[in-house]
């Protein structure tokens, strides 16, 4: 049973049109575009006869109420009301939303259901709404037009909202910066993410993934989540810093993980023993180490990210100070790690649930020349490309992009006051039936050239974000994930027991709560 049918959270669950406007009856932007939902990308692609698509992945698009906690959460009173009164005569509407419980608000719902919860907000209130979580009121924008309005940010009304939410761990990195400094630094860094530069990183990543996977146990149960996290750690230091994983790279990645863990810390005081305290210590050590590493990286003329960046942006180019280079490198370590873990995990999960796709991916990987794949060889693996894109559609590694209003503004006719935190829900767009044919179904061929469902709107598929902060490492990220999966399908086979359904949770980035137990078996030719 799902909350689509029961409880106060199910109120006003009328369909939305393809701009994300609710066609329910709550007055939040309905009736402006009441035409039937269109999905041009799905025309002529009705899926297999008797397709079980609608029953697939229900937990990703809706709220399961079979567990007592979910049933209880669905009974939380919404306490619906406006966010802030619009200025008189502005013609703007207030943002509608839900307060939920005192202080806690609907915070537990947010962490437990992620995009499925925000999809509920969209259904209830339309593309611009607010909700309370842990004492904070956050505006959610969902649906392609609202998301586009904020990320394109035409009148510069929004700044990055990440530091306010997750803490100082990104400080000095691109995602913590705003125009004009952001644009200037990003321009310089672009070369370090260009085609020529990334060939070196990707080759190292592919070699290290191969070596790490050779140590994975076959024929006995193990849990995929920590293993894939460790794998990403092993694959990162040589490519990004030119440092071997053992022993220095391991220590560096542990410290990076301390910073990532603190993003969701409840206690934000530097009290020894807390994750906040450990993260401050980790960041200090990382910055000191990276600052020391920059001169050597510049000298060695290597093809790792830090060497390339130090040469392009270093004092010779008179652009970045050593400290700035260290901060950019640290943020790159953070940005490239967890996101690719989730993309790999999601792809691993869906390949394990869909053996026919695993077989197709394996056939293509085995057909390429042996050895660690080059960028060109990875580019030829179009089956894996579609699998990864579809997996990131269903489980978006970074399903929200945080922004803050720097002045009074509006989104789709709704008043947003200065200082308001805004969660841009790209992950919701990726699940909307108005944009995707049977969105809960794992169907990588929706990205095939004859369907191109993602082209229905430029914000329909946006796991890498959009606008000024769009992921600068998206090619590196895609290639890292593909190189890892390529090495996996060449080496072993895996399948989840029939009926296995991972319970994805969203406390930091998405991850299954059970660690995803699985048995790998050696590949048979
Ligand atoms: C599957 C993997 C990845 C995903 C899904 C992903 C996702 C994202 C998203 C959504 C943003 C924008 C956030 C926002 O606008 O609020 C972003 C920004 C960024 N990402 Fe990625 N990322 C991935 C891999 C990587 C990798 C591998 C690197 C570096 C090697 C990287 C470096 C960055 C940087 C530096 C930014 C900030 C860009 C800016 O602010 O101008 N990402 N990423």
TrEMBL record:
Compositional bias annotation for Polar residues: 15-25
Keyword annotations of the record: Heme, Iron, Metal-binding, Monooxygenase, Oxidoreductase
Gene3D superfamilies for this protein: Cytochrome P450
GO MF entries: heme binding; iron ion binding; monooxygenase activity; oxidoreductase activity, acting on paired donors, with incorporation or reduction of molecular oxygen
Phosphoprotein as UniProt keyword: no
The protein's required cofactors: heme
Family: Belongs to the cytochrome P450 family.
Protein name, entry field: Cytochrome P450
Organism per entry: Streptomyces clavuligerus
């Amino acid at each position: 049973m799902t909350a689509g049918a029961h409880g106060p959270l199910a109120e006003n669950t009328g369909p939305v049109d393809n701009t994300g406007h609710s066609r329910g009856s709550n007055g939040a932007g309905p009736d402006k575009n009441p035409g039937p939902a269109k999905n041009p990308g799905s025309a002529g692609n009705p899926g297999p006869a008797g397709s079980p698509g609608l029953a697939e992945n229900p937990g990703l698009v809706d709220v399961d109420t079979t567990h007592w906690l979910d049933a209880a959460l669905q009974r939380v009173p919404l306490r619906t009301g406006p966010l802030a009164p619009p200025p008189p005569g502005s013609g703007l509407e207030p943002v509608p939303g839900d307060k939920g419980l005192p202080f806690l608000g609907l915070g537990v719902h947010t962490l437990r259901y992620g995009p499925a919860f925000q999809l509920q907000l969209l259904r209830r209130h339309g593309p611009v709404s607010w909700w309370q979580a842990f004492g904070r009121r956050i505006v959610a924008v969902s649906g392609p037009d609202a998301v586009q309005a904020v990320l394109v940010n035409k009148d510069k009304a929004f700044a990055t909202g990440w530091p306010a939410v997750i803490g100082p761990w990104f400080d000095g990195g691109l995602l913590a910066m705003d125009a004009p400094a952001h644009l200037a630094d990003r321009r310089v860094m672009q070369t370090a993410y260009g085609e020529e530069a990334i060939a070196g990183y990707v080759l190292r990543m592919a070699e290290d993934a191969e070596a790490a996977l050779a140590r994975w146990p076959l024929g006995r149960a193990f849990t995929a989540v920590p293993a894939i996290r460790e794998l990403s750690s092993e694959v990162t230091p040589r490519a990004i810093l030119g440092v071997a994983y053992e022993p220095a790279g391991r220590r560096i990645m542990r410290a990076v993980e301390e910073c990532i863990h603190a993003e969701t810390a409840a206690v934000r005081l530097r009290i020894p023993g807390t994750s906040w305290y450990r993260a401050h210590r980790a960041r200090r050590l990382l910055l000191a180490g990276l600052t020391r590493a920059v001169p050597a990286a510049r000298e060695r003329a290597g093809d790792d990210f830090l060497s390339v960046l130090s040469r392009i942006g270093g004092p010779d180019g008179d652009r970045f100070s050593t400290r700035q280079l260290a901060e950019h490198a640290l943020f790159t370590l953070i940005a490239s790690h967890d996101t690719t873990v989730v993309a790999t995990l999601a792809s691993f999960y869906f390949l394990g649930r869909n053996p026919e796709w695993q077989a197709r991916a394996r056939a293509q990987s085995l057909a390429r020349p042996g050895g660690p794949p080059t960028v060109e060889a990875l580019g030829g693996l179009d089956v894996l490309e579609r699998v990864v894109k579809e997996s990131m559609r269903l489980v978006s590694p970074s399903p929200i992009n945080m922004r803050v209003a720097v002045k009074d503004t509006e989104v789709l006719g709704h008043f947003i006051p200065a200082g308001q935190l805004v969660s841009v829900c790209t992950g919701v767009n990726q699940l909307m039936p108005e944009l995707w044919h049977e969105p809960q179904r794992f169907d990588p061929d929706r990205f095939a050239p004859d369907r191109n469902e993602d082209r229905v709107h430029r914000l329909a598929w946006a796991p890498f974000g959009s606008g000024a902060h769009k992921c600068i490492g998206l090619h590196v990220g895609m290639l890292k994930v593909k190189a890892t999966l390529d090495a996996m399908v060449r080496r072993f086979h895996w399948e989840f027991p029939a009926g296995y359904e991972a319970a994805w949770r969203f406390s930091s980035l998405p991850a299954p709560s059970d660690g995803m137990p699985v048995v790998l078996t050696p590949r048979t030719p």
